[in-house]
Structures are given as C-alpha cells and as structure tokens.
Amino acid sequence: MTTAELAALGLGRRGVAGRARAGTLFRLYRGVYCTVHPALLTTEGRLLAAVRACGPGAALWRRSAAAHLGIRPQSGGPTEIIVPSTAGRADRPGVSSHRSASLVPADVAEVERIPTTTPRRTFADLRRILPPDHFRAALRRAEILRLDTGPQPEYAPDRSRSDLERRLFAACRSEGMPLPERNVSIGPYAVDFLWREQRLVLETDGWETHGTRTAFEEDRARDAYLTTRGFRPVRLTDRQVGDRGTLGATLRALLSAPS
C-alpha cells in the first residue's frame, strides 16, 4: 500500500512510522509498504510494489511486462517500469523506470491487479530490443494465449547490422580468428556477438540508442550481470567498428587476452 492509501484508511505519517517500528508494516520502497515480511511477498506482490513506487500512471514495461503477460521468461535484470513523461519518480533499487511521452491510458491494462502495458504496446516496445528469433518466439506464445498483439509486420533487413557483421567477420577472417556467434541469449540478455571459448562478449553502441540515462543504466546492469557470470563484456562504438585500420588489431588483442 502507498502512504496515500494508508492515509485514506486513517493512518497518518506517525501511525505508519509507529507500525513500522512495531513490525506490523514493512517498507518496500519510499512511500510503499506491505503488511507481511518482504521475504514472504509473492512475485506479483513485488511487481505491484515496484509499479506503485514509480508513481501515478506507471506500468510494467518491456521484458517485465512480457514476463507478466506470460510471453517471455522472467528476467533476471531490474523490473522495467514505464511512466508518463510528466509523472514518475527516480529509479529505486532493482527498478529501472523510463519516462515516455507516447504512453497513453489505452496502452495500459491491469493484469492480475498489476498495471501492465497491453500486448500491443508491449510488442511495439519489444520489437526495438529483441533479436528477431526471440521476438517471433514471443509472438508464437502470445498467439497460444490468444493475446491481441495487433498487426505485426515482418522484420525488415537491418542494413546497418548486416554491414556491422560483415566488417567484423571480414576482420576475423583476415586475421585468422574464430568467428563469433550472433544474437546469443545469456540469461535475460541477448548479446550482439559471443566468442564462447574466450568468454568474450562484444556489444556495439550507437549514440542514437545508447546515449540516454536509461540506456546508460541498462548497459551497466547488463555488463555487471555478464561479468559476474564469467564473461568479458566489451563495447565498441559504430565508429570504432567502422575503422578498418584498427578493427582487426583490436579484435586480435581482445581474443588473445587472458579470459
């Protein structure tokens, strides 16, 4: 419950503080409490608390929405929340919030009492971040569940991605290095390129999609997850990958470094 809901029940700030000291109320986030010990909360209870903590109009978003809708596995990363551009609060521990000017009330529905982006909005957001095979798998699951995903056009070939792969593969061949696997799932994340034996993960960052505060936080969470599982995440900019004079040498140094 939020402090506003508790106040509506006649429990003011002092009453909330007193019950928290007595162990009959437990603080989950600033302004959000529950009446059972946090260790006993269900997954749904934790998700609802995360949404409430992000303010009016907030809803589960992207991977978290997909998991709650049953079309993707639960993510090991932070709970992803979307809020209207004029609302919301700063990120909380374990919560990644995103303000959106395009979010309208019709994009949100309550699913098991938790505000969640609708299947249509969820797939529109997932299309921007999931590899095609992951996206199609989620679509198949949604069809089984009879969810209204709206029309889903086929993926158009991503020329910039094709050019990137071509440059990387050409550099590997010219240097006699092994070719990487592409769009590989590691836990909740899909990485761009993986050299499995060397435990090397290569991600490519463009300013247009990675030059925001939210992207900065998400990229660091991804890197931390990979590092704790024994991988070496490395990021190159589009410009670095496009530098033919140094790309081969860079890859050779990365692949020969101790794992």
What do these coordinates show?
- The chain contains eleven helices and eleven strands.
- A four-stranded mixed beta sheet has the order 8-9-10-11. Strands 3-4-5 form a three-stranded mixed beta sheet. A two-stranded antiparallel sheet has the order 1-2.
- The protein is elongated and about 75 Å long.
What is this structure, in a nutshell?
With about 260 residues, the protein is α+β, with helices and mostly antiparallel strands. The protein contains 11 helices and 11 strands.
Taking strands numbered 1, 2, ... along the chain, how are they ordered across the largest sheet?
Answer: 8-9-10-11
Q: List the helices and strands in order.
A: HHEEHEHEEEEHHHEEEHHEHH
- How much helicity do the residues have? 40-55%
Give the tally of β-strands: 11
Stretches where pLDDT is under 50 for at least 5 consecutive residues are 207-211
User: What's the rounded overall pLDDT mean?
Assistant: 81
Number of helical regions: 11
What integer value in Å does the Rg equal? Answer: 22 Å
Q: What distance lies between the first and last C-alpha atoms, to the nearest angstrom?
A: 47 Å
Question: In percent, how much strand structure appears in the residues?
Answer: 15-25%
Which structural category do the helix and sheet elements fall into?
alpha+beta
Question: Can you summarize the main beta sheet?
Answer: 4 strands, mixed
Shape: elongated
